[in-house]
Specification:
The structure is a single chain. The protein is of the alpha+beta class. The chain has three domains: about 80 residues; about 100 residues, L1 transposable element, RRM domain (Alpha-Beta Plaits, 2-Layer Sandwich); about 80 residues, Rec A Protein, domain 2 (2-Layer Sandwich). It contains eight helices and ten strands. The strands form three sheets. A four-stranded antiparallel sheet has the order 2-3-1-6. Strands 7-8-9-10 form a four-stranded mixed sheet. The longest helix is centred in the N-terminal third of the chain and has 82 residues.
Amino acid sequence: MPSAISEPTLTTTGTPEPLVRPTVVTLENLWELSAGLTLAVRDCNAKLDTFASQINTKILAQDNTLTQLQTAVGKVDTEISKIKEFNMATIQDRAALSRRLELLENWNRRLNLRLINFPRVMGEMPISTLKRYFAEVLLLPENQFPSINKAYFILQNRSNQQAVPPMDLQNLTDFLESSAIEIIDFSTLLVSLIMEQDVSRLMIAYFKNLNTLFHGKKVRMFPDISKITQERRKGFLSLRQDVISLGATFLLRYPCKCIIKKEANTFIFFFPRTAKAIFRFSYPLREYCIFRGIKEKQPPLQVKSY
């Protein structure tokens, strides 16, 4: 009888031993060989089934993990969308709050005027110098002087301030009797009025006598506005030449409303970045109007606010 055939396994490695041809081959030998192969194949199938079951279990586990990950990613995406919406609402609320604070600050300063390059006279109160400015430059009669709440010079950096020369006490009598006016320096005078109509009246008188000198220099008068509004005005003024070069008209109204007219269209801007995006970066107005859906055959005046 031939020796029993060893059962093959999935983990068997190496080269199988070569078969030795027996001298006599009988049907009994063939039967034993077939029976051994059947057992080997059956055992291999069982091991393959076990291995496939393990793989299926791992695949199911991976599918569950993938489902959990997809659910977690979906939750993260939802949270990100909510955070974006919250941030957008916060930014809008902050912009609206900043705008309201700016309007409130400008409203509180509506009775104030800034006089740039105003002289500081030694021995004279700022209100007294201001009244002389009303009479000599603005040509206002004394009975039409506005009611002044307060007037004071805005402090400057110490490096820019000029040292006040010491007064000679021995010549105090000569100083008091002298009619000469000694200028310490020229600074910014902040004037607070009582009535709002006085602000308009002084500004009208100022523009009528814009180039009149006061103690040898031109005094510039401006309404007092908040720092944020000043920055926005500077931003608009930096675009003035670019807008004019495009053939458009530029107008900056108080406190900070920019009006740009081009052909039959009028654009109103409240923020310089919007005007800069349209006019500075080679954005033709006609193409912009078409992009915004403005038809060519329209009434002659189209106003757009930004």
